[in-house]
Amino acid sequence: MAANQILSLPAAATGLAPVSSATAWTFGTAVTASASLPAGINIIGLQFQVTNIPTVDTTQQILFDITVGGITKVQIPYTQRSDTAVGFYPSVPYSGGTVFLPEPYKVPGGSAVAVQVTDSLSSAITYNGVKILYQENTPPTVALDTPTDAATGVSTTPDLLFTGTDADADEIQYNVQVDTVNTFDSQVATPTLISSVVGSGAADVTTTGIDTTGANLLIIALACDDAYNTTPTDSKGNTWTQLTSYTQGNVRVRVWFSIPTSVGTSHTFSASGSIIGTIFAHAFSGVVQTSPNDQQNGANSFNTSLATGSITPVENGELLFTVYGINGVGVPISIDSSFTETHEVDFNSGVSYGGATAYLIQTTAAAINPTWTRTNSNGQAATIISFKRNKSPLLNKLSVTPDATFTDVTNGADTTPFASGDQIKYTVQAGDTLTASTTYYWRVRGLDPSGSNVYGEFGNTDSGLVFPATAVSDAAVGVNAWTTPTNVYADDAAFSFCATHSSTSTGNVDDIVRLVVGGIIVGTDLSNEQNFSSAGLKTFGGATSLWGLTPTVAEVNASDFGVVLSVRNTFGGALTPTQYLKVTNFGLSIPTGTRIVGIEVIYDVVTAATAQVRIDYVQIKIYFVRSFVTAGVGGGGSDEEYIIITS
Fold this sequence. Notes:
Layout: E1 7-9, E2 31-34, E3 41-47, E4 58-68, E5 71-83, E6 87-90, E7 98-107, E8 113-119, E9 131-136, E10 141-146, E11 151-154, E12 159-165, E13 173-179, E14 187-188, E15 192-201, E16 205-206, E17 217-225, E18 233-234, E19 241-248, E20 251-258, E21 269-271, E22 277-285, E23 293-302, E24 305-307, E25 318-326, E26 334-335, E27 340-345, E28 354-362, E29 371-373, E30 379-387, E31 391-392, E32 395-398, E33 406-408, E34 423-427, E35 439-447, E36 470-474, E37 496-499, E38 508-517, E39 520-522, E40 536-542, H1 553-557, E41 562-569, E42 580-584, E43 595-606, E44 612-625, E45 629-630, E46 633-634, E47 641-646
Parallel strand pairs: 11-47
Antiparallel strand pairs: 1-9, 2-8, 3-7, 3-9, 4-5, 4-8, 5-6, 10-12, 12-34, 13-32, 13-35, 14-31, 15-22, 16-21, 17-20, 17-22, 18-21, 19-20, 23-30, 24-29, 25-28, 25-30, 26-29, 27-28, 33-34, 35-47, 36-42, 37-44, 38-39, 38-41, 40-43, 41-42, 43-44, 45-46
């Protein structure tokens, strides 16, 4: 963040509102500012509104507590007085109730932060607008040292040397990855069922214990009473996220998942309260750990069969999980033969609704809509959910146990976490020996456990979304010119527009979308008739799309690089298509020695007015890799990601 920039927690304008106790010098209830900090912060002060003015010639004393993980870490005393002689005054020069600490207090990422207050009064007082003032604690950056970029003849158990730097001088832990592809995802897991369990009852149902060791996805599904609305729990204290919920004839199916922080033996799962139903718990391995849920759908009816609702997973090898709930006896229950049924429980009148669960590992991604079948036509509900499989690099090593094969070159006695600025060496171990005559990519990132407590980036692999600095209407095609094309420079209320029809605002679609390289319109036309009459983002190209070109870094960084768009109205007429909206001069600075691998363009379309198309802004993103090898010959690169060629 910018030097001297101050942020507040929470960022909301109103701030927190802790209340003191009605008893003098007794703390009121703590108010949470953040249940889990996304990154570390340096607390530098506290701000609040003076909401209670003492009576004349009375001094009011206040004590604010900032707690971290429920433990008091910072105390800020404050006094205020209404004096006959000099009027009202606080204990520090009045600046809207702002107190700065003599030195910052560092709070690691992931911490829970709260504020509580007490004072010298014997009445409860609300202190409004309380904000914790802080500055960001940024993650470390890492520069790769050796092997040099695109080096050849490197050992099959190479020494990888790198240097990490932390802006706050925090000590650093490291993560080293090595792979044969520059996307670092060559190792593809197959989701696997580790264990599962089921339990039923009218209230407070807890399953028997199972062994979930090795699982990285937990799923709880309920076939329960329609009115039941309580999040389940487990004996390991994991956090649960709710997905779909469908109901019919008083039976409801509900699903939660957890990326567990704790698994193991004697693992139980519970639904408290009047569940009047069945709890199904499953533990799987091989599922991606960030945003694992892909698709979901559900259905309900009164019938002897029920299709779950169609989903189309986006990737091959996804885990498909379905739960079925029934109101009325009717086992056996069955599902399409491609699925593996795990549990089946019949309806138990007056005690619990029944149901079943099943899963499938879908080898090839495709639309699917499985059908549950039973003998009774009472109410039934079902849902289906897909989860993405995990992909990982060939080697993924940490400087902490169990991969602690890292040494400090600068200071041989130092161990992880290592001092900022020290050169560190990781040696590929014999058990991970690389294949001879093969190209490998490697990258490193750092984490400061006492600071931000989050990993920094491995190194830039894209430019981020960038706005243009030049926009014109180009008459090379089309009829009408774009009005105020420079309004596409920023995400704001201003927009550029063009007439497309004499009377209707519907029917606008992209007609031509091409790149501009060296000031010349070139490359494949990626128009695909997206709806430019409706508001929203319209995206062309992507991380692996080069638009039929092989642009160089110099060409992309040039001020005459950009994109053109012409819009057509499908109803025809004399006003269609539009001229080109031509945007260039994005101010890109892609590093030299890299290879462009993808170009993405985004148009933010505003809802069309009669006879017009409207665009708020245009952005472009360039994807690149840091180094590459062609025909076995080394190429350029940068500090963040290198190639090793073993022999």
